[in-house]
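Working notes for the structural subgroup meeting. M.R. asked for a predicted model of this chain before we commit to crystallization trials. I am recording the input and output together here so anyone reviewing the notebook later can reproduce the run.

Input as submitted:
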Amino acid sequence: MREFVRPIAIALSIVSLSAVIAVGSCGGALAQAKQAPAPQGAAPVQPPAVKQMALTDKQIQGVLAAQKDMDAITEKLPDNAKPDPKVTAQLEGVAKKNGFASYDDYNDVIDNISIVLAGFDPATKKYVGSDTVIKAQIAQVQADKKMSAKDKKEALADLNEALKAPAPVIENKGNIDLVAKYYDKLADAMGNDQQ
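Returned structure, recorded in token form:
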């Protein structure tokens, strides 16, 4: 099951990434991410679109350098934690130490990396688009004989929900090549909190 959690989390992050990051602090982001789904029959709320930008080597290296410190701060936070000025200040400090103007700037870069990473086939490490990745994950879950029926049902429901969301169009095609260059490091660093 572990090998399915990270790809499912990445696929689902596309759906809620902007709304989660827009909260402004990781504690608030965790609370936002854990909200109950909308009641049946209610129209799904679409998060605001990610502010896309052309990524640079320096930004990606900054994310990689900051990730361990960011994880150390956010791993201590309880689920549904309220925004805490002390935690926000720590996150701001880590972001600035690693070359970002602010924690928001860091999050904008994470958003852009995430929407590109979501379209990479983990087996081939090639960009194929997030819909293709999600469809492949659905096929993997359906074929998995070791996965419990309950887990399979939940995973398929999550993946099918992610497939319904409109796939983001990558505005800066150079981001694909840049993320490909750092794919292994990014998948490892950004996947740690999703496994």
